[in-house]
């Protein structure tokens, strides 16, 4: 058997793996309708940890305070900011009785550790149901809290939401960020639907306070600077206690990074936590990424070699058809269908960037959350 024949067989196996993944995602999340549940007005504590976020708080906090929800407090955690973050918090507190401020001073043991600041914020909260977002996020509607809280029940103690990024025309970086965000959301929502939840995003997620303390909070990974959202969810989430919310009213919207360098630094922090996931999650996520990378490498190689070119093109077309169907239905559900026809190009950029980020993290790991 020739070397190119072996490459062809490996390529078919890789495409088979990809198709199995995409079909699993397709049927578990993409084509399922959102289940509408009655709104609940259970008491909520919104936790926002901010470090040098004075401008973002001034811009976004009013949207949170305008929520059409009868019983909620906002716990603002100032994580040793060097700008006017604390002063902005105090101004909002002066005119809003449902705001609490937790001022975290520099601590040599926990310096630069968001988890320490978040823990103090959680301890200061009054209610058993906690909703998390960031200072640079704003709710997509005044029903954000009502939508998120509707998913809580006696069994469901974790609610995973979607944190979108605002759209900017004629920006490849913006398109890449949104594509990566949708792809990641497709995975963690689908995995949750399949009964193996592995992460959430701190821009939009919620869980019960008692779940945090019953699992000793962030203690098992306090020394890891990132992962206050995904590592905690990876540790405590399971098929029975986790639900998702993907109505447009439940989204939060953030401003994306404006430079490729800043985005890469952000992704390096996020990616650095993946090696601490449970083994089954690392295997499944690793297999998906490796199959993506090999699909492009082997596909391009076989096309250049013109080996069984008609078969290669047919297999590639099948893979793209299933992928675009899956991504397109997800993008429609997440209100960002404009990216569908750019998906193949954006995938090449994303896979290349992820490989570069992985290699960079092998050399050095990001030390601080900001």
From TrEMBL:
EC number(s) from the headed UniProt entry: 2.4.-.-
SUPFAM superfamilies for this protein: Nucleotide-diphospho-sugar transferases
Record Pfam families: Glycos_transf_2 (PF00535)
Residues covered by the Glycosyltransferase 2-like domain: 45-212
Parts of the chain that traverse the membrane: 6-31, 283-305, 311-330, 337-363
Top-level EC class: transferase
Keywords annotated in UniProt: Glycosyltransferase, Membrane, Transferase, Transmembrane, Transmembrane helix
Single GO term (MF): glycosyltransferase activity
Family to which the UniProt record says this protein belongs: Belongs to the glycosyltransferase 2 family.
Name used for this protein in its record: Glycosyltransferase
Protein species of origin: Winogradskyella marincola
Lineage: Bacteria, Pseudomonadati, Bacteroidota, Flavobacteriia, Flavobacteriales
